[in-house]
Write a structure and sequence with these properties.
three-stranded antiparallel sheet, about 220 residues, alpha/beta, D-Maltodextrin-Binding Protein, domain 2, elongated
Length: about 220
């Protein structure tokens, strides 16, 4: 019976681009397919604790109990406003500049929130990757200059650290194929050729010459 191949399951937040890492994985670990789960801030940790994913791209902070967490990069927050909003005339704004604005509920998904902004329902502050993901012609995004950045990290359960998890984390961190610690894919053994007959080892004679037989010249 053919064994079912192992699958590595990756959980990811909207706005996190995985292409570079999954392409490298496909080149190095073709025998282990990847599966994907889309998460939100509400379940980015539970998919790991419930065993639904092997690794998860999370937005910090998270409860690190039992987790290995490696920060990857920071991104700025932006405010998304209707295209004709006064904020659109500025290159950046502060939190104080937005104090009198009606903000869209945080209970909405980022896509629905941007849609409500476009309909004149208020403004929304989002990480830049989410604002870029939901770009529309009827809204604009401007940096909020005095908000701290948001950090994206990769996380996994410490007790479930496998060679596959270690390999994927290494790819994300920039480990090259040459320095990979993953177990290589076993290859089928090639049919061996018949060994060529070995020449006998020359025997040394008295005087240090090899024991090759000299042809007699008839003498």
């Amino acid at each position: 019976m053919q064994e079912t191949p192992v699958t590595l399951t990756i959980a990811s937040l909207p706005g996190v681009t995985l292409t570079k890492w999954t392409r490298a994985w496909a080149q190095r670990q073709r025998h282990i397919p990847l599966a994907f789960i889309s998460t939100s801030a509400a379940n980015q940790e539970s998919v790991l604790r419930d065993g639904l994913a092997d690794v998860s791209f999370v937005r910090l902070p998270v409860d690190r109990t039992g987790l290995s967490v490696i920060p990857l990069y920071d991104e700025a927050f932006v405010v998304v406003v209707p295209k004709d909003h006064p904020v659109s005339a500025f290159e950046g704004v502060s939190v104080a500049d937005l104090a009198d604005e009606e903000q869209v509920s945080n209970d909405l998904s980022s896509e629905d929130a941007v849609g409500l902004v476009a309909a004149g329902g208020g403004i929304v502050i989002l990480p830049q990757s989410l604002a870029r993901l939901h770009t529309r012609k009827d809204v604009v995004a401007r940096p909020v200059t005095d908000l701290p950045t948001s950090t994206i990290a990769i996380a996994w359960m410490e007790e479930r650290t496998t060679s596959q998890v270690d390999e994927f984390v290494g790819i994300v961190r920039g480990r090259t194929a040459a320095s990979s610690r993953a177990v290589p894919t076993p290859k089928l053994a090639k049919a061996s050729k018949s060994p060529s007959p070995q020449r006998p080892t020359p025997q040394k004679t008295r005087g240090g010459r090899s024991g090759r037989t000299r042809r007699s010249g008839g003498r």
